[in-house]
Inverse folding.
């Protein structure tokens, strides 16, 4: 019988497997264990996860269930029968109601806890898929970026380096006027781990325009400020920037509260009928391309349907329990990247004075 | 690639490791980067002879399958990659094979640099092994377990949730 050569098995087949399978396959032999644990493989696997077509990202969302707003996750590949909470380490489990998603990068999710009245912020960086949460040898630096909040107009951004454990301020040398953008930012997403994109709304013209401005974390320069293509304003007014398959996408919701159903079920919480339209806008490799593809997820009572408009395939995931006011916070690729734990960041006087305008924060690599 | 039509070849002959000859249309052969490279080289030299390409690593039954794939994909070469009919065909094509054939086909695709077939085979294998047990993996890929029982227990503990 023909046995596959090791290089095809390790370089071509293993990166296509889901992390759960890979963790199990560490047990095959010592070579598998070392290979799957290696940094090179983890990075290689992440690349596949982001760009390989049939993989569905983990959806991280917050929603109200049992009268509590919490963060949940959904993995369409596993087809979980319930929405599990984000797995948190024991010392943070009491915080699960007060966490906010700051962003995601390299399959990791960055959460921030509200510590009102304290001079420190708790940040939790974990892999939502594996729940893995340990200190990684910090050879690589992660950076937190704060676009100055509106109260203190200035043309700088603050960058916190995890490695250096300190804040730095970066002057703006471009012709993009940050003081105009700062107060109008709605959210930020990162692609290729270092290109941070903020979505903001430009009210200066006759028509309001949504625009995207980019900050490059490697050379710390501001890049293109581009306008989104014209969208049907009634249908696509409220959207957020998200990342999908390594591209930026603009994700909109069409909420239709199904009051009729509500009555017939006699329940005291609203069932939300939700349609998500995803317009993929930009990929670093192909530059601006509008409406490249659309994919929608429909949450309808007790199941979620992923629909891929490109190849007309759909995937149904049954879920238990009803959720209302569901908001997708992040689309995280499944990865083996290990979260490096928590950090307590001292809030600089300068930043604290500006309150906590969370949407301005972002983490990059 | 040579531009003059007088020196361009329309066919090549491919020889399998067990010495069977296959006459292959140039468009079909171009699906394999290895064959395409050979053709381009010959055309650059301006030869008008029919060229023979020996493939020392591919048996005739596997070569037949690779050429069947190339022929189908050459027909769709001008279409976009998302053609549903082609995807369906790909799936039906691979479904017929056992692991041994699939492995040989994967190696042939790698050797003949037919990237799309290699991707297809690897994804197919990945999909079919993802729910297998560790024991089954060792068996299929002929891998010997070199852990002590204690080490095995430790690794299982480390990632307990993955074994549930």
């Amino acid at each position: 019988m023909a046995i596959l050569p090791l290089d095809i098995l390790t370089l071509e087949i293993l990166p296509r497997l889901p992390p759960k399978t890979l963790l199990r396959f560490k047990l095959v032999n010592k070579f598998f264990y070392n290979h799957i644990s290696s940094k090179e493989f983890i990075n290689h696997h992440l690349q596949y996860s982001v760009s390989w077509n049939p993989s569905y990202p983990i959806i991280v969302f917050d929603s109200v269930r049992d009268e509590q707003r919490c963060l949940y996750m959904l993995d369409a590949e596993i087809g979980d029968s319930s929405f599990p909470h984000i797995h948190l380490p024991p010392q943070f489990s009491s915080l699960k109601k007060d966490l906010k998603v700051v962003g995601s990068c390299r399959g990791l999710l960055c959460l921030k806890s509200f510590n009102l009245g304290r001079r420190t912020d708790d940040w939790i960086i974990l892999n939502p898929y594996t729940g893995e949460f340990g200190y990684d040898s910090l050879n690589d630096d992660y950076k937190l970026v704060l676009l100055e909040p509106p109260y203190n107009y200035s043309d700088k951004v603050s960058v916190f380096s995890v490695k250096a454990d300190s804040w730095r301020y970066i002057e703006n040398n471009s012709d993009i006027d940050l003081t105009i953008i700062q107060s109008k930012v709605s959210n930020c997403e990162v692609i290729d781990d270092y290109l941070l994109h903020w979505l903001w709304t430009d009210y200066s013209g006759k028509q309001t325009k949504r625009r995207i401005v980019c900050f490059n974390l490697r050379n710390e320069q501001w890049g293109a400020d581009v306008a989104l293509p014209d969208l049907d304003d009634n249908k696509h007014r409220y959207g957020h920037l998200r990342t999908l398959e390594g591209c930026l996408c603009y994700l909109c919701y069409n909420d239709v509260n199904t009051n009729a159903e509500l009555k017939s079920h006699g329940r005291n919480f609203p069932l939300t009928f939700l349609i998500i339209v995803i317009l993929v806008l930009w990929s670093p490799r192909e530059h601006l391309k509008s409406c490249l593809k659309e994919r929608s997820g429909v949450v309808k009572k007790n199941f979620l349907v992923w629909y891929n408009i490109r190849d007309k395939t759909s995937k149904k995931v049954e879920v238990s329990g009803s959720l209302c006011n569901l908001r997708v916070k992040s689309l995280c690729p499944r990865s083996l990247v290990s979260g490096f734990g928590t950090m307590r960041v001292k809030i600089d006087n300068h930043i604290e004075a500006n309150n906590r305008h969370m949407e301005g924060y972002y983490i990059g690599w | 690639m040579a531009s003059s039509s007088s020196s361009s070849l329309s066919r090549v002959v491919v020889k399998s490791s067990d010495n069977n000859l296959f006459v292959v249309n140039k468009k079909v052969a171009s699906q394999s980067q290895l064959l395409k490279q050979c053709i381009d080289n010959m055309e650059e030299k301006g030869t008008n002879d029919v060229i023979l390409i020996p493939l020392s690593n591919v048996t005739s039954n596997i070569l037949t399958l690779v050429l069947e794939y190339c022929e189908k994909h050459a027909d769709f070469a001008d279409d976009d990659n998302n053609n549903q009919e082609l995807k369906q065909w790909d799936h039906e094509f691979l479904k017929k094979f056992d692991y041994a054939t699939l492995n040989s086909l994967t190696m042939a695709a790698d050797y003949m640099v037919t990237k799309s077939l290699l991707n297809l085979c690897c994804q197919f294998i990945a999909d079919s092994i993802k729910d297998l047990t560790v024991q089954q993996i060792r068996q299929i890929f002929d891998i010997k377990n070199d852990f002590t029982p204690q080490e095995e227990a430790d690794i299982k503990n480390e990632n307990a949730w993955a074994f549930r």
Observations:
- Residues 8 and 43 of chain B are 6 Å apart (CA to CA).
- The domain at 11-130 of chain B is CATH 3.30.710.10 (Potassium Channel Kv1.1; Chain A).
- The interface with chain A takes residues 82, 84, 87, 99-101, 103-104, 106-107, 110, 118-119, 122-123, 125-127, 129-131, 134, 137-138, 141-147, 152, 155-156, 159, 161-163 of chain B (CB under 8 Å).
- Confidence is low (pLDDT under 50) at residues 1-7 of chain B.
